[in-house]
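Q: What would this chain look like folded?
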Amino acid sequence: MDIALHRPFHKIVFLEFESQREMAAALLRFQEYYECPRFRGRVFTLREYKEWYRGQYGRFTYLTDWVGFNFPCTVLDPFLQGRFRPLRKAELEILGLLKLLRRPFYVIATEGIRPSWTPSGNKAAKGRPARRSIPHSGASPARPHPAKQLRTTLRHELAHALYHVSAGYRQAVQDLLVDDLPLLTQEVRRMGDYADRVLADEVQAYLVGNSGALQVSPKLIGQVGELFEQYLTGSAKASRRPSPSAAQTRRSRTGRIAKGQSRVSSDRKRKRKGKRC
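A: My prediction, written as structure tokens:
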């Protein structure tokens, strides 16, 4: 499994996978421990999750349902403590990549897109959101992910990360959305089975990266987008300040951990697209 690890913004770690399926398989339990209303905060096996997913949607299509992932570094703790034994090979590789990084940080992941890290000039585009309900009617062949869609997914995931690592951005967005949030959280709840705790975060991420998914005014979309650009630019500047750490100079079992970008080789990957537990 080949994974590129980027540190483009302050306290944000971006994992770039070669394929959607490998990303989704590697990150499933991390993500659902964090976000799934059924499994949030619980230790569970892959078999248990698959059985639940089939019960919800008829088939286990998780590996092609999700195009973006995000979770805080604290999600790693029960995996590092051995509570999720046995760990799958892909999960061990993710832990090997992340366990030496200086905390706190927030993890986001998408399929490989070779992004430029310029936040401006990337207006929110309509399209399938990173985590959203999709119908299951017969066969669902994998769809190609054009560059525009992948950029939209990355923008959505960056909004999640910024919401967690920047108290200033989080408060500014909450103040801006105070009157609209009750209705918007209901819209997001209908899109997928998100845990209540993450609904406000999902609202702002949809407004930043998938504005066409919500019924809101263009003015509000623009205001949220401006806040995102403003604070992300500040985060990019902070990430360029030197901050030496052991994680930047030591080598993990799976590869070099370094600021900027590093590659790690192994034999699995995954990514995601649109339905939610």
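The CA atoms of residues 85 and 139 lie 33 Å apart.
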